[in-house]
Amino acid sequence: GGRLVATHGLKAECTCKLDCPPRALRTEMLPLMSSLADRRAASEGAAESAKQGGGKEDAWWRPTVKAKAKKKAKSKKGHPMEASSRKPVAPKGVTQKAKVQPRDPRFLDTSGALNVEMFAKSYSFLEEYRDEETSLIKKRVDSLKKKKQRSDEDEEIQQEAAKELKLRLQQDKQRRHLAEMRSQELALKKEEREKIRSTGKLPYFHSRGEVRRKVLQTRSQATKGPRNKMEERRDKKVSSREKKRLPTRRS
Question: What are the tens digits of pLDDT across the range 102-111?
Answer without folding.
Answer: 888 877 888 7
